[in-house]
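To illustrate the input format used throughout this study, we show a single complete record. The first block contains the structure-token representation of the backbone; no residue identities are included at this stage. The design step must infer an amino acid for every position from geometry alone.
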């Protein structure tokens, strides 16, 4: 299925959907208007079986050595938000672990979900949760995170993001926060916010105006 998997530096990425929550820019869009991403859109949401089959194809062609020292695992990312399909994600993670014990699993998300979803995500016990933060300043965060045509500017807030990250960290999960360096963004403020909520790593991403 086109758009289901892609690799960057031999790392496998799996896209579960094109969809993002109402009113929000996708992670790709928060990288800037001129950011280019060659992954084609999915024609439909892949089934659990589709995803597992695609992962099997990747591993059948991968040159894994020894005890898997060079296996970079599986990262759930892509055009849309993986956690909008958390029911499917839970089943996929279970099936991967049944077949590939010890494989490294990661998730990339905007972190704009309720506490219940954060707890379900934490219960997956993934190796890393990479959560995007556009800005540590609430009004700037709105401008960089909400779609230009958003019809309800208060649908999500920076406070919602903080609650999600805090819940993950309180569950003992490894949280990495990334911030695109858009013009005017105070990277130190974003870093301080992330670390205060329990993130263990922080890094910046290039912004494409």
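Output of the design step:
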């Amino acid at each position: 299925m086109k758009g289901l998997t892609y690799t960057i530096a031999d790392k496998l990425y799996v896209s579960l959907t094109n969809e993002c929550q109402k009113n929000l820019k996708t992670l790709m869009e928060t990288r800037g208007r001129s950011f280019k991403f060659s992954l084609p859109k999915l024609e439909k949401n892949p089934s659990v079986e589709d995803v597992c089959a695609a992962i099997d194809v990747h591993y059948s062609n991968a040159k894994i050595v020894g005890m898997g020292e060079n296996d970079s695992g599986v990262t759930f990312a892509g055009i849309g938000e993986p956690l909008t399909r958390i029911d499917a994600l839970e089943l996929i993670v279970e099936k991967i672990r049944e077949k590939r014990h010890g494989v490294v699993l990661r998730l990339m998300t905007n972190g704009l979900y309720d506490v219940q979803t954060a707890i379900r995500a934490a219960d997956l016990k993934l190796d890393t949760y990479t959560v995007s933060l556009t800005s540590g300043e609430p009004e700037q965060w709105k401008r960089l995170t909400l779609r230009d045509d958003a019809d309800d500017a208060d649908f999500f807030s920076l406070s919602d993001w903080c609650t999600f990250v805090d819940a993950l960290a309180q569950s003992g999960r490894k949280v990495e926060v990334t911030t695109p360096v858009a013009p005017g963004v105070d990277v130190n403020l974003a870093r301080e916010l992330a670390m205060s909520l329990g993130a263990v790593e922080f890094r910046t991403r290039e912004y494409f105006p």
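Structural context for interpreting the output: Helices lie at 48-61, 86-99, 115-123, 138-145, 158-170, 187-196. Strands lie at 5-8, 11-14, 74-76, 105-109, 128-132, 175-180, 201-205.
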